[in-house]
Design a protein that fits this description.
Length: 355
């Protein structure tokens, strides 16, 4: 089963409401889709969202990376799966989202050739999942209204985007906490917006009022490992690293240094499924729980993340795969159920999503 053709296309969809974090604002989804065809007619689909502020990639750079890799893998046999993946990662460093899109399409093909859903091919059995939903950063009133809407749609966990101003952030979290039923869990994501000292002061203020979030995500700059450790040693709220961890090596350094509690795995950072699985295994060795997250991306790559969550269900116990729920139109065909907080994998072979 030979790779005969690789092409790319874009996937566009409007969002229900703008996505706002301390790093950026997004008004519509615009992803790159990778389509790999084989000589027996099987087609694999992959996808990635250019996120310049996190991975350094743009739509143009992703297309260029795939065009660069393409001639090296056309003509290869899918049966030589490992060597194709190794080649992709050897040919070009970084470009993690472009490589992830290629890997997702290759895993889709491999699972289709094996006539299995991807999660089963990866050893997973869990099919039912619950995701949180992101509450974009904004005024307190808007954030409360969005939080109440989310709860009315059945979400039990909210991920609150903060990080532009520690004082305002405390008020936001307190106001949302007070407006909600106490069984609703809050995850806080500051997207690198605070210093270590600000983080400790802010979390202590919340903790004194018995507001202990499920975790605080990436409060300080991605490379501020000392800062993460400083925070972890001083607060009760568990600390989750996102932008600080792309690779298994990054995670090992942070976990050995005891700088974090949890790991946020995203395929767009790990350069695909292979390293995401390894990252979950490494976290398990350290007893660190993982969340699987996504960029603002569409159903193909989000589905790939759900398959990974199933494959490593013992370690990946938290899902932040809400970006399909944020779309106001569904631009693909899928048998996977994406119903707000509820995601259910189907027994369709491969990833289960196609154009
Ligand atoms: Mg994050």
């Amino acid at each position: 089963m030979k790779i005969s053709c690789i092409h790319t296309s874009t996937l566009k969809a409007p969002l229900k409401t703008p996505f706002i974090t301390s790093l950026r604002r997004v008004d519509a989804l615009e992803d790159l889709v990778v389509i790999i065809e084989c000589d027996n007619g099987l087609v694999g689909y992959g996808e990635g969202a250019p996120t310049p502020v996190i991975t350094g990639e743009t739509m143009g750079s992703m297309v260029a990376a795939i065009e660069y890799i393409k001639p090296h893998i056309i003509g290869k046999e899918i049966e030589d799966f490992e060597s194709i993946l190794n080649l992709i990662h050897r040919l070009i460093v970084k470009n993690t989202t472009a490589k992830s899109a290629l890997e997702i399409a290759l895993y889709d093909l491999k699972a289709k050739a094996a006539e299995q859903p991807l999660y089963q091919m990866l050893g997973g059995t869990q099919t039912h999942f619950r995701t949180d939903i992101t509450i974009s950063m904004g005024t307190i009133d808007k954030m409360i209204a969005d939080s109440l809407d989310a709860v009315s749609l059945g979400y039990e966990t909210l991920k609150i985007k903060i990080g532009d101003d520690p004082k305002k952030d405390i008020e936001r979290v307190k106001a949302i906490h007070n407006a909600l039923d106490k069984n609703i869990k809050l995850r806080l994501d500051a997207n690198q917006g605070w210093t270590a000292k600000e983080s400790v002061a802010l979390l202590h203020t919340l903790e004194k009022q018995d507001i202990i979030a499920e975790f605080i995500e990436q409060p300080v700059k991605a490379d501020d490992i000392e800062g993460l450790k400083y925070i972890k040693e001083r607060v009760k709220t568990p600390l989750l690293a996102d932008e600080s961890i792309f690779s298994v090596k990054d995670a090992r350094r942070l976990l050995e240094f005891e700088a974090i509690d949890y790991v946020n795995i995203k395929l767009a950072k790990t350069a695909g499924i292979t390293q995401a699985l390894k990252l979950a295994d490494l976290s398990a060795e350290f007893g660190a729980k993982c969340m699987i997250g996504c960029m603002l991306e569409g159903p193909i790559s989000v589905a790939a993340g759900v398959h990974v969550a199933s494959a490593k269900a013992d370690t990946i116990t938290m899902l932040d795969l809400d970006s399909v729920a944020l779309l106001s139109e569904h631009p693909v065909k899928t048998d996977i159920l994406f119903n707000e907080s509820e995601i259910v994998l189907s027994d369709t072979i491969g990833i289960g999503v196609s154009l």
